[in-house]
Amino acid sequence: MTPIQCSREVFEALVIEALENIPKAFRQRMENLAVTVEWEPPVQIRKELGVPPTHDLLGLYQGLPYTRRGADYGNTLPDKISIYQKPLFDACDDMRTLKTEIRKVVWHEVGHYFGLSEADLERLERDHPGARRSSRRKRP
Fold this sequence. Notes:
alpha+beta, Zincin-like, 3-stranded mixed β-sheet, two-stranded antiparallel ribbon, 5 strands, 43% helix, globular
């Protein structure tokens, strides 16, 4: 498999498209959230999360999930979703697959924003195979 490549601008446009395809009822509740594209996850993040070298980290949510925010929530830095470009390139061999994988990773991380755990997301992905994509992927 030959990894796919595209410009940063094209990749970011695919991330924006994935965000725009999140159902409106959820998008309207997304606040104080920054979505960024980074080339690859920092080594320190991989260590903190215990992601082994045999796995790719495709995306990451950092922050206080929406469901845990109380009335006193405010005046805080935005939560952050990072989408990692290089691991997604490495996982895909054509633009169609890249677009699909970006959508799945974005939705997965937005699920974390709304308070879903890895177990919750795995269960949803198992019950809805079209949504299957963990933000961690074991390398072939």
